[in-house]
Specification:
By secondary structure, this protein is α/β, with parallel strands linked by helices. It is built from 6 helices and 6 strands. It has a 6-stranded mixed sheet with strand order 2-3-1-4-5-6, with helices on both faces. It binds guanosine-5'-triphosphate and magnesium ion. Guanosine-5'-triphosphate (GTP) binds next to helix 2.
């Protein structure tokens, strides 16, 4: 980033740009959540399974996010790692009602955390325990236990219970992410 951009950022004239990777199994609600975070004029009504990935943008009070919304389908998950180098934050979405595949979500998370481009990076990870509206959804505490999140010692992380359809719980998570990225002082 050039000096002018830094100055503009400090003066609040220009929002700092952050690259975020949105990961998680297919059908967990990634695209639904990212769509909800966009301004209402840019939101779409038709959410379809993502093919490969799509690039989305949204802004908070001080940051401008570029999100790589990756497909969670098995055949596309090998694409994730190609974006790890440029990711400055991760949003990892879990379908809290998908008890059967919680173990698969954990496997994908473990593979992510042990990847050479991630393992030594102090990258913040925001977990969305999504689909809380469903009757058989596990609590965010239970999801956190099943994914063994307490074992993540070298990266800041946070988990929020969310309902992607209504947009509930998302703001708290994004506020945490913004606070964390600002504290990182990456200017
Ligand atoms: N009940 C409920 N359904 C949700 C919620 N969030 C998303 N969905 C639904 O879950 C389905 C999958 O949502 P997507 O946003 O396409 O999931 P995705 O993680 O992007 O899936 P891929 O692109 O295939 O990786 C859609 O039918 C959504 O309407 C939620 O919080 N509650
Ligand atoms: Mg999607």
């Amino acid at each position: 980033m050039g000096l002018f951009d830094k100055l503009a950022g400090w003066l609040g004239l220009k929002k700092k740009e952050v690259h975020v990777l949105c990961l998680g199994l297919d059908n967990s609600g990634k695209t639904t959540i990212i769509n909800r975070l966009k301004p209402s004029s840019a939101q779409t009504q038709d959410i379809v399974p993502t093919i490969g990935f799509s690039i989305e943008k949204f802004k908070t009070s001080s940051l401008s996010f570029t999100v790589f919304d990756m497909s969670g389908q098995g055949r596309y998950r090998n694409l994730w790692e190609h974006y790890y180098k440029e990711g400055q934050a991760i949003i990892f979405v879990i379908d809290s009602s998908d008890r059967l595949r919680m173990v698969v979500a954990k496997e994908e998370l473990d593979t992510l955390l042990s990847h050479a481009d991630i393992i030594h990076k102090r990258i913040p990870i925001l977990f969305f325990a999504n689909k809380m509206d469903l009757r058989d959804a596990l609590s965010s505490v239970k999801v956190s236990q099943l994914l063994c999140l307490e074992n993540i010692k070298d990266k800041p992380w946070h988990i929020c219970a969310t309902d992607g359809l209504k947009g509930e719980g998302l703001q708290g998570g994004v506020d945490w992410l913004q606070g964390n990225l600002q504290a990182e002082e990456m200017w």
